[in-house]
Write a structure and sequence with these properties.
The chain is built from nine helices and 19 strands. The protein is an alpha/beta fold. The strands form four sheets. It has a six-stranded antiparallel beta sheet with strand order 4-3-6-1-2-5, with helices on one face. It has a six-stranded parallel beta sheet with strand order 10-9-8-7-11-12, with helices on both faces. Strand 11, helix 6 and strand 12 (about 315-320) form a beta-alpha-beta unit. The protein is globular, with a radius of gyration of 29 Å.
Length: about 425
């Protein structure tokens, strides 16, 4: 009996010794690796090296233009989309009967319009409108908000929107350029947050419908901000989609609505779309944010997302109308030199020949179109994304550089002010 106990004790002692040695070996190895890691961290800090997360390549590649120049489209359906009767959808089919190639959800169409004037003549006007349906080989759809004359001003009503609402009917023919634009949904499977303010909902609708049809498992949140429910576009359709797709989370954000009117409304929230709302509702995930709406909305929301910690590469936006959004990355650069004034000022002079204005260029001014408008110089514009050619301007002297490759090819000796900045001192026929 004692021999059996001695053998058992010996076996236990040997096993314990082996486990102890293994633990010591693993502990030493872990400590060495930990020490190397700490040393590397200190070296990175000492050298002021920024460690950035690995960038993932986009799953979306730019598509070539579906056709060159203008193509005739016939309006086959005209539908009022909101209770307030301010947003109307127009379905367009190609007159030649050929199938339409896919576009990128979020892109726009450019229309060349001949708008009647009071004298009985017509005036050529170029305007861009976002496509509001998912890619479909049979037709496009644009949803256009009527722009009345602003109250208490001398400004006229929107020429193109009033033309569409008052003169374009089912059967009308329109001249259209191919889908274009650099604001579109990435086709990977990352969770996405779509934010539309007012008529800024239109590209969001295209993105949403594409996701639900092509990526039904993708997590999609839609925050749609308006003043009151009468301004909501396609409310019933959106609610039906939300009920049918568990991965689609819908929220109508109504800024001027009485709280009592929201009782029993499943998808309605009171207030504006802001980061406080997003933080309260969104789980902690690496979302991509797509935002379209009026300039004040973007000016508050985009920097707030950056302050929240959302990576710059995950914030995508498009403004309706003039917009200059101060990005956090740009703002940090302005403090890297001796002074902010030293950063924004440059020795480049921009001369607007027709108006007789000469102004020193500021590198934080945005595009040349933004710069012209900030200095009181009117330039016709449409898409503000290099797609329509409305802001094409002759360069008398100097050179420009493009921030992105434009979809519209300017004529030799001309530039598109909305997507370029001066490379040298510049004289423009504006």
């Amino acid at each position: 009996m004692s021999e059996n106990m001695s053998s058992l004790q010996l076996l236990t002692w040997i096993t314990g010794s082996i486990l102890l040695q293994l633990a010591i070996y693993l502990g030493i190895g872990f400590w060495r690796h930990w020490a190397e890691y700490l040393a590397l961290r200190h070296k990175i800090v000492d050298l002021e090296v920024a460690v950035s997360p690995l960038k993932v390549a986009s799953a979306t590649e730019a598509l070539p233009a579906a056709w060159a120049g203008l193509r005739a489209f016939r309006v086959t359906r005209k539908t009022m989309e909101d209770t307030a009767q301010t947003i109307c959808s127009f379905e367009l089919v190609p007159q030649d009967g050929q199938a339409l190639k896919p576009f990128l959800p979020g892109q726009f169409l450019t229309f060349s319009l001949d708008i009647p004037t009071e004298s009985g003549a017509t005036q050529p006007v170029v305007r861009c409108y976002s496509i509001s349906n998912a890619p479909d080989p049979s037709h496009y759809r644009v949803s256009i908000k009527l722009a009345p004359a602003p109250a208490n001003t001398q400004l006229p009503a929107g020429r193109s929107s009033n033309f569409f609402h008052d003169h374009v009917v089912e059967g009308s023919l329109l001249q259209v350029r191919a889908p274009a634009g650099h604001f579109y949904l990435d086709r990977d499977d990352a969770p996405v947050v779509l934010i539309g303010g007012g008529v800024g909902i239109t590209p969001m609708l295209s993105m949403l419908h594409w996701c639900l049809s092509q990526q039904p498992g993708r997590e999609v949140w839609l925050f749609y901000g308006v003043r009151h429910s009468q301004e909501l576009v396609m409310q019933t359709q959106l609610e039906t989609l939300a009920a049918a797709h568990p991965n689609f989370h819908l929220h109508f954000c109504l800024s001027d609505t009485d709280p009592e009117a929201l009782a029993g409304q499943k998808y309605h929230l009171r207030g504006r779309v802001d980061v406080a709302l997003l933080r309260a509702l969104l789980p902690l995930k690496p979302y991509h944010y797509y935002i379209c709406g009026p300039t004040p909305m973007l000016q508050s929301l985009v920097p707030a997302l950056e302050d929240w910690g959302v990576q710059d590469s995950r914030i995508h936006y498009e403004a309706f109308g003039p917009a200059s959004i101060q990005r956090k990355k740009t703002a940090s650069l302005s403090h890297s030199g001796a002074s902010n004034e030293a950063y924004v000022a440059s020795d480049i002079m921009v001369t607007f020949a027709k108006s007789g204005t000469q102004v020193a260029w500021h590198v934080d001014a945005g595009s040349l179109l933004d710069f012209a408008e900030a200095n009181g110089i009117h330039v016709d514009s449409g898409c503000r994304a290099g797609g329509c050619g409305s802001c094409q301007t002759t360069i008398t002297s100097g050179e420009v550089t493009y921030r992105q490759t434009p979809d519209f090819d300017p004529e030799p000796g001309n530039c598109l002010l909305c997507v370029c900045t001066p490379k040298s001192s510049l004289t423009l026929e504006a």
